[in-house]
Amino acid sequence: MGDTGCVHFASYVKEYGYEPYSYVHGYFSACVNKEARLRKALSCLCYKCGSSGPQLYCCLHCIYFACKGAHITEHYKHTKHFMALELCYGMLYCYQCRDFIYHSKCQTIAERHLWLEARSLDKSLSWRPWSPSRLEIELLLKNPKRRHVTALTSIGLRGLLNLGSTCFMNCIVQALIHTPLLRDYFLAELHECTAKTAAKCLVCEVSRLFQEFYSGARGPLSLHRLLHLIWNHARHLAGYEQQDAHEFFIATLDVLHRHCKTSMKEQAAKAAAAAAAAAAAAATDKSKSSSSTQPNSHQPMQHSGSNYLQQQGAAQQDGAGALAQSGPNALPLSTAGNQSQGGANTATGTANQAEPNQTQCNCIIDQIFTGGLQSDVVCQACNGVSTTIDPFWDISLDLGESSNGQGGYGGPPRSLIDCLERFTRAEHLGSSAKIKCNKCNSYQESTKQLSMRTLPIVASFHLKRFEHSSLIDKKISTFISFPAELDMTPFMSQIMSDQQQQQQQQQSAVPHSPSSSSSNFNERTGGANGSSTGTSLNSDSTARLPVDKSTTDFRYSLYAVINHVGTLDAGHYTAYVRHQKDIWVKCDDHIITTATLQQVLDSEGYLLFYHKKILEYE
């Protein structure tokens, strides 16, 4: 059986055509509009027992509804009507073949109906499994050899040669290579380079590395091209001495982001120019023609500027080219804010107001790694709140003793959760860092609290083990435990705001002294999140920005850990990466060895990479 169904369906199409299938699927399976949903609600009942499921079939010969099993089988035996449509999943069933069948044209019709249903309900398309395009089918036919991927496969594992104190680069590359969505993006060859020469494009080089890693070869790779490109685009990393892995990680993301952003702008400009030229040509043809025939309009193709995650969540088959395509949407991420605070590395430019930035970059780097850090500064005199939101690529967490021992939390943290709790604790800025309050029209003491406004798909945490001061440089080797599964819900802005409101309601019911009325943002003090100066408190900014409450799952799973062993002067970087589910490997330059999850959790930890367990498609 090919993509044209069976011989019985061919005879059915010859007699009835595709209209019955299109009508039944559009009205009783996909429900393309409000009228279809009403008809389905009133008509989709088993004609035998009157039930609505759980799985109904519809006869394509006479529009007869019946339950799966005895009822629909009885109808077939009585009428000899052999073609039916399963309404839950929209699958064709042939009773003469006693099996479900596939037909490419019916699939195209079904894809269009699903798109119309999504547009009618103002929702995104449901996730669809991958379906090869015509070009991919041709390539698969030309290359019939297949690689069988098993649980013990080594595909995707390659050692990396140390080119002379380049272990910092090798570890970051291993972590990026094993980032699932980044791997899917580059293996799908979605990057379209607009550089004059691909040899100067860092994104092209990373794409080539992904191809090398998953080629099936086992020999170690040399990253001399990548290193040279990084030197050219991030001059502060040029040289033969050991570099900081965290600094290299941020620099790599920055260069990738800039290259992707430039590529997207150039492609958008070309698409706009092509659209303008097509419109001008159409207008010229229309003015010259005296007939009423309208010229064909050519729409510009979507390219790498569109949302890759949205394409994954709303994949369209190549055969359904007639279907309208949904436009690119930005991630729900605000990038406003005066500057990055509390150790979060900013990803884009800055602003002075806490408003969503409509020009937020939508490249693959920002889609995966960019989150939003909310900073709330509260005036201690009038409780006015000034809110700013900064984008971040990772969160840097202090490991030393807190400079403010209030609240009983003055010692060093013991776990990643301790670090995050201290990072999001309210900090009293003190009399030496007074901030002008617009409501009070004077400089007042205030508190500042950080929280997670939006979370990225990949949450990376930097444990600040290296201390640099005017007196001495040292490494903090304190063991910080970190979990394999991480729930970030307690650190979300909306959750923390709800907790604050509950505390205020409880306090309003209990008499309290006037001095306690000037409490901080969430009635907790302690922790050092840095200071902010030159900020004006605006009483109008107390209103919270809207939060998508439908996204309630903030669970993450550990997939990569980078460790530093040794001292500041003589150290070495290694990495643990999750190769497959429950299979971990240790990457020590060109040596790849198996590891256990317990070994990973017992390691010192310098950079921690967590991947979101459940993705919300746009």
Short note summarizing the structure:
This protein has 618 residues and is an alpha+beta fold.
Overview of this structure, please?
The chain has helices at 7-16, 19-29, 34-43, 70-79, 104-120, 134-142, 167-177, 180-187, 202-213, 224-233, 245-288, 308-313, 364-369, 416-423, 493-508, 597-602, and strands spanning 56-59, 65-67, 83-86, 91-94, 99-101, 371-379, 385-392, 395-398, 427-428, 435-437, 442-444, 446-454, 458-464, 466-468, 473-475, 485-487, 555-566, 571-580, 583-588, 591-595, 607-612. Residues 290-306, 310-342, 346-359 and 512-551 have low confidence and may be disordered. Helices cover 31% and strands 18% of the residues. The protein is globular. Among the domains are: 7-121, Herpes Virus-1, CATH 3.30.40.10; 166-261, no CATH class. It is of the alpha+beta class and 618 residues long.
Sum up the overall morphology in one term.
globular
Q: Catalogue the unreliable spans.
A: 290-306, 310-342, 346-359, 512-551
Determine the N-to-C terminus distance.
36 Å
Helix and strand content put the structural class at alpha+beta
Helix content: 25-40%
Query: Considering the protein shown, what is the CATH homologous superfamily of the domain at 7-121?
Result: Zinc/RING finger domain, C3HC4 (zinc finger)
The CATH architecture of the domain at 7-121 would be: 2-Layer Sandwich
Number of strands: 21
Strand content: 15-25%
CATH topology of the domain at 7-121: Herpes Virus-1
CATH class of the domain at 7-121: Alpha Beta
Number of helices: 16
Main beta sheet, described? 8 strands, mixed
Average pLDDT reading:
76
Radius of gyration: 30 Å
